[in-house]
Known about the structure:
By secondary structure, this protein is of the alpha/beta class. The protein folds into 2 domains: 2-50, no CATH class; 58-185, Oxidized Rhodanese, domain 1. The chain is built from 6 helices and 12 strands. The protein has a 5-stranded parallel β-sheet with strand order 4-11-10-5-7. A hairpin with a 4-residue loop joins strand 8 (103-104) and strand 9. The chain is globular, with a radius of gyration of 16 Å. It starts with a strand and ends with a strand.
Amino acid sequence: MAFQCGFSEIHLDDELVSRHGKEAWRRATDVAPDQLYTKSGKAPSIWDERHRHRVKIQSLTAAEAFGALQESTNAVLLDVRTTAEWQFVGRPAFERSVGIQWQTFPYGAANLSFLEEVSEAGLTQETPIFVLCRSGVRSLAAAEALKEAGYKDLTNVSDGFEGAKNASGRRGLLNGWKAANLPWNQD
């Protein structure tokens, strides 16, 4: 079985190693199962068996997370989408929000300085952090990485900024930050 990833093809029996080592490659491949597809266009079912989430992260919907963020005096909304998503899709309009890419635009490569950038943004291991992406997948991976790095109070926004696709294949209408009519703006 082979997967298409960007411009190349990856075979399951191929040994995959990045120039930054196996741990960096593992993190890069763990970030977004929705970015891997078989030639038929379907996400590989093997993902579920080989990449189960290793740490437990609390999840809330966007509406629930926004309520919790408003009640808190120090919780931060960490938006891990790409710069292109912030610019073209919009951003949550919340005063305590920080944008740090989990994957970089335009190729979706893992942001290997993610943890360093989180620290530089002033988020400590004690800061309550609500992690948001498009639909809850990258944010969960980012929250897991933060948990493994010692961050304690993490919540995944399970439906993300745009949420799931509707029957017509459009996002932002069924669930997520935008569909819940939570405050947002666009650059």
